[in-house]
């Protein structure tokens, strides 16, 4: 056996040992919070995907917004949508957590600017404007099927999609499905370069996830992410991290069926993120 094969064998052995420890650690956290946790990590350098409950369904919450804006950019590129088309903002359509659009009632917003608002501030009214422009939840689900995601589904709009019920498959994904789709959209050429770069820039400009993995990411690493929160103690994080000398890691973390406060959910996301960073030598 040559030296490179020996080295590869040793590296894989070390990884699987660390992954086993990661499994045990997350199982322990899950038991502690009396909830359900789903995690998926896709390493672009090896194409290996590690997961914990990675094929179980979890509520997407606002993590769907990345997918909706990917669909908007795709439709604009294919000529099916004018991203500069104006959509009116009316008081009867305004819903809670709309920090951008609540200041624009009576005026209009372009579909592209609505995507910027929903990606960078998680503006829910803007998200519904984007959904309306791409054919609603059904249009987004069809887009996912065309991109080889047969799992992820959106059924409702904001804010109803955050009304999480145990066992309800509406508005759900699995950590593995979300990770695979994000990797395909951001790093595998499913989108044209300009649109891909725009989507990543919006994710990097996200201002509502500072208390999550951004807060524990070592210096020298970049992050592009999107988070979500919902009923039933639910919380989600999806994103990618990379460095000059490391290809991206795509990470999805979901919590549900907990009694945790928002602050406690954030702490659990970060505890899991820290374990992932340790396992994958993110330092």
Automatic annotation (TrEMBL):
It is an enzyme of class 3 (hydrolase). InterPro entries: Beta-lactam/transpept-like, Beta-lactam_cat, Beta-lactam_class-A, Beta-lactam_class-A_AS. Its EC number is 3.5.2.6. Keywords: Antibiotic resistance, Hydrolase, Signal. Residues 38-254 form the Beta-lactamase class A catalytic domain. One of its GO terms (biological process) is response to antibiotic. One of its GO terms (molecular function) is beta-lactamase activity. PROSITE patterns: BETA_LACTAMASE_A. It comes from the Bacteria. Transmembrane segments: none annotated. Residues 1-19 form the signal peptide. It catalyses: a beta-lactam + H2O = a substituted beta-amino acid. Gene3D superfamilies: DD-peptidase/beta-lactamase superfamily (3.40.710.10). NCBIfam families: bla_class_A. Belongs to the class-A beta-lactamase family. This is Beta-lactamase.
